[in-house]
Amino acid sequence: MTTDWSQERLLVYSPHPDDETLGCGGLMHKAKCAGAEVFVQFLTVGDTADQSPKGFSTAEERYTEIKKASEHFRWDDWHMALPGDTHHLRLDSVPRVDLTQLIERESPLSIARLKPSVVLVPHRTSYNQDHQAAAEAVHTALRPSNTRLRHHPRLVLAYEEAADQWRTEPVQSPNLIVELGEEDLAAKLHGMELYGSQSHEHPHTRSELTLRSLAVLRGMQAGVALGEGYHVLRYLA
Asked: What is the pLDDT of residues 135-181, one digit of tens each?
């Protein structure tokens, strides 16, 4: 399977600011450099207790980080669907029908309005409840139906994060590896640096060494130097 990224319109679903960079920062850079359109739909953000020296990050800080990441990756647009503490880390309390309708047609970056050719979503095996809710809602929004009535993206991929491996049941290895150049990985690593409230020193799932090590591992599995792993949910040849 080969993809001419210059012809694609990518829509990335990111439960929180930084998930899109952790999961597909390399592909976003690779595709954008080839001439693709890249859009990011964030689902929620709020004040967050974390392991930073300060002990918390505010929604205002996270918005500043999004703007920096947007300029770095040259996104064509981005949107925050459900801002505020009511929904942040509580997406599993939002009825799936409401989240699905937002994704399918109500958001400014909805499937119906944007008509992406490629959709990237978090993997449903994540331990994080917001990631699980996002994955399931996007899956429902992209359900099979008559293509004359509803838009069907040609390629739907679930991206991985290092923390996804924290499961009680086995997690299957990605069945698609996107080859990255060193410049793509460098862009991903710098993108994560821009999320200063969320990046950490090693050992941590969001450290630079973790991201580089995962890229080396996935590349090795495909016989190349660097890669990003994905699970194919739909591929229309």
From this structure: 999 999 999 998 888 999 999 999 999 988 787 777 788 999 999 99
Quick one: tokens of 237?
């040849």
Q: Please report, as a single letter, which amino acid is at residue 21.
A: T
Find the helix or strand (DSSP H, E) in which 156 lies. Answer: strand 155-159
Query: Whole-angstrom distance between the N-terminal and C-terminal Cα of the chain?
Result: 9
Residue 140: alpha-carbon gap to chain centroid: 17
Provide the 10 A C-beta neighbour count for residue 10.
26
Which one-letter amino acid corresponds to residue 110? S
Report the run of H or E that residue 179 belongs to, with start and end. Answer: strand 176-179
Q: Which residue has the tokens 């909805």?
A: 110
Answer whether residue 53 shows pLDDT above 70. Answer: no
Predicted local confidence at residue 163, as pLDDT: 86
> SS3 string of 86-137?
CCCCCHHHCCHHHHHHHHHHHCCCCHHHHCCCEEEEECCCCCCHHHHHHHHH
How many of the other CB atoms lie within 10 Å of CB of 211?
A: 25
Helix (H) or strand (E) holding 26: helix 19-34
The structural architecture, per CATH, of the domain 7-235 is 3-Layer(aba) Sandwich (3.40)
